[in-house]
Amino acid sequence: MGSKSDGYGLSDKKGSGKIEVPKINFLPQKPRSYNPKIGLIGAGGISDYHLKNYKLMGLDVVAIANRTLSKAVALRDKYYPKAKVYDDYQELLNLDHIEVVDITPHPEDRLPIIKEALRSNKHVLSQKPFVLDLDEGRGLVQMAKERGLKLAVNQNGRWAPHFSYMREAIKTGIIGRPVSVDFSLQWDQTWIENLPAFEDLYHMVLFDFAIHWFDIAVCFMQGQDPKSIYASAIKYDGQKYSPPALASCIINYDQAQVRMAFNAHTLLGEEDVTTIVGTKGTLRSRGPGLNDQPTMEIFTEKGMARVPLEGCWFKNGFQGTMGELLLSIEEDRAPSNSAENNLKSLELCFAAIESANHNRVAIPGQVMKYEPNRS
């Protein structure tokens, strides 16, 4: 065995100096002049964050539809007092002056609404997860293309400050090609106890939550195709809710690997860490939660920098998704959060759930549907 003097197992401390913080444009963008009339369909809890941030952006929401009209009225009065309210979404879609609709209901209810919105010649921002069947998703993508419409997905995690900075930094080549990505999250999600929408969702972690991490993994690993995936989900005695609180996943590429570890029942000492190691450097973000990642670090051969981050997930994220859709309409290009792009994220998610359900390796792209229950 070597001694400490041999330097066995010790780094030579390359890049231990300080460098200037690289200028990376990671904040949400919005159009220069395009500000269309927007309609919101679905006034559930998440819609509050949508409208709060649209108001901050100066966007023009003119109509809100929800089958329980009182919910639409409450949101209208809180954010857009002049907006019209409807209990039938078709009435909203019949309004010719509305160009963009934000559709927030759950996937089963959302699919026919998206179809009707496209038939009504509206650009669409769909809530995540986009669809539960890849073929249905591809059909919607084709339908939008045939009508010359933009169809985007509200994968708002892409604009969380730390994820957005990392995504854009990778594009500059500052850390070279990513060879490993590690997500390690320990958080307290016991607030879902006795809430049927979550208690009845077996893969609450891998599906409802981790969809954001599958999505950002696709962004980080752009240009590299996943070859296989292995995932697991574990429930333990003493949990306060029914779905497994522990989950993990390994995604293999030809020359890279993405690893995810989740504990959604961390009552003390919550932490969220993301580390991306590339061929030329490393990016790392650490904080007590996904909405609280105040700084991140960049390590290169020239040295390291601590990057102050502006904003938070629940602000930047919701501004980023709609802002990118509107900007893509103004510039007549595909949005970076297009439904077509998001299908790659769903391929990872569906394959991970297939793997966890059957305790075997799955191939992304070969699992076409979301399988909710363990076989």
From TrEMBL:
<protein>
    <submittedName>
        <fullName>Gfo/Idh/MocA family protein</fullName>
    </submittedName>
</protein>
<dbReference type="InterPro" id="IPR051317">
    <property type="entry name" value="Gfo/Idh/MocA_oxidoreduct"/>
</dbReference>
<dbReference type="Pfam" id="PF01408">
    <property type="entry name" value="GFO_IDH_MocA"/>
</dbReference>
<feature type="domain" description="Gfo/Idh/MocA-like oxidoreductase N-terminal">
    <location>
        <begin position="37"/>
        <end position="154"/>
    </location>
</feature>
<feature type="domain" description="GFO/IDH/MocA-like oxidoreductase">
    <location>
        <begin position="164"/>
        <end position="284"/>
    </location>
</feature>
<dbReference type="InterPro" id="IPR036291">
    <property type="entry name" value="NAD(P)-bd_dom_sf"/>
</dbReference>
<dbReference type="InterPro" id="IPR000683">
    <property type="entry name" value="Gfo/Idh/MocA-like_OxRdtase_N"/>
</dbReference>
<dbReference type="InterPro" id="IPR055170">
    <property type="entry name" value="GFO_IDH_MocA-like_dom"/>
</dbReference>
<comment type="similarity">
    <text>Belongs to the Gfo/Idh/MocA family.</text>
</comment>
<keyword id="KW-0560">Oxidoreductase</keyword>
<dbReference type="Pfam" id="PF22725">
    <property type="entry name" value="GFO_IDH_MocA_C3"/>
</dbReference>
